[in-house]
Specification:
two-stranded antiparallel sheet, 8-stranded mixed sheet, 300 residues, Rossmann fold, 7 helices, alpha/beta
Length: 300
């Protein structure tokens, strides 16, 4: 970018009869949070890990000896920003982390974030949990990106970094611990788990296990949730416990009771933050990440 093309912040404008005032939009509650933060610790940085990538056939990089073939036509990000908005509403700062496949950056990356939110996205390659592909496996499956995401899960667990997994993110949490998935729910249940109505409207209840992290965060024992998945947890991964299940018995949430904050939910609480028990999940992640951030930054 040329220096003359630099985007400069707009100066405040005085309203007049001939010109409307310039209004800079703020996220909900931003002014109050800004005042509070000046007297306290900085907001925690939450990495939003996503496999919401779409293939692009057009070559964008020149071939060089050190570049892999997959690098020459990089995928495009397709993440819905409800995840980042939910993190910001909860008082954190969101940074999107695509599952690009370069596993050698994981330690340096996790040194810089205070928590991770693993987003929804395409199906995992079943080879990651030792199974063959089901005929109903979805599109955009990418074993290289899957391996990167699972490595992030493993490294985060080793550091006891706060983690919230949403939909695919919960499934990844389970696979990273040696668990497996039901590859196509219509094979095992008649309950609809892929709703056709608005994202922010629930479709079925779940039963929350008493004294689980989910129970302590949300406080609702039978919350209504939305549902957009055709896969689910089969064999539970090591160290995980069921935190909620659907009326048909399908696992809807898992958690690690030995971790400071490790929770996965099969629904999408980031689109239900107008409901207190769902907003509490992202708020809980940010609160746990803040406890990580404060002592680390106080030493610097």
């Amino acid at each position: 970018m040329h220096s003359s093309d630099t985007i400069r912040p707009l100066r405040p404008q005085t309203p007049s009869r001939d010109r409307d005032a310039v209004v800079v939009p703020l996220r909900r509650g931003a002014a109050a949070r800004s005042r509070a933060r000046r007297a306290t610790a900085p907001p925690p940085l939450i990495g939003v890990v996503t496999h919401e990538l779409r293939a692009d056939a057009a070559q964008a990089w020149a071939a060089t000896p050190e570049r892999r073939e997959r690098d020459l036509a990089p995928h495009r990000l397709a993440l819905r920003l409800t995840y980042t908005q939910a993190v910001q509403e909860a008082g954190g700062i969101a940074m999107v982390l695509p599952t690009h496949g370069y596993v050698d950056d994981i330690d340096a990356l996790l040194d810089r974030v205070d928590g991770l939110l693993f987003s929804g996205g395409p199906d995992f390659d079943p080879s990651t949990y030792g199974e063959a592909r089901h005929p109903a496996l979805g599109p955009d499956v990418d074993a290289v990106a899957d391996a990167y995401e699972l490595a992030l899960h493993a490294a985060a667990a080793e550091r006891d970094l706060p983690v919230l997994g949403i939909c695919r993110g919960m499934q990844g949490l389970n696979i990273a611990r040696g668990g497996t998935l039901v590859q196509h729910l219509p094979d095992v249940t008649a309950l609809g788990h892929r709703q056709r109505h608005d994202l922010y409207e629930p479709t079925h209840p779940v039963t929350v296990e008493a004294d689980s992290l989910l129970d302590r965060l949300g406080g609702a024992r039978e919350p209504d949730v939305n549902s957009f998945h055709h896969q689910a947890v089969a064999r539970l991964g090591a160290g995980l416990e069921v935190a909620a299940h659907a009326p048909d018995g399908i696992v809807e949430a898992v958690w690690d009771p030995a971790a400071s904050f490790s929770l996965g939910v099969q629904w999408h609480p980031e689109t239900l933050t107008h409901v207190p028990e769902h907003a509490a999940l992202v708020q809980g992640l940010v609160a746990a990440a803040r406890r990580v951030a404060v002592p680390l930054r106080a030493v610097a």
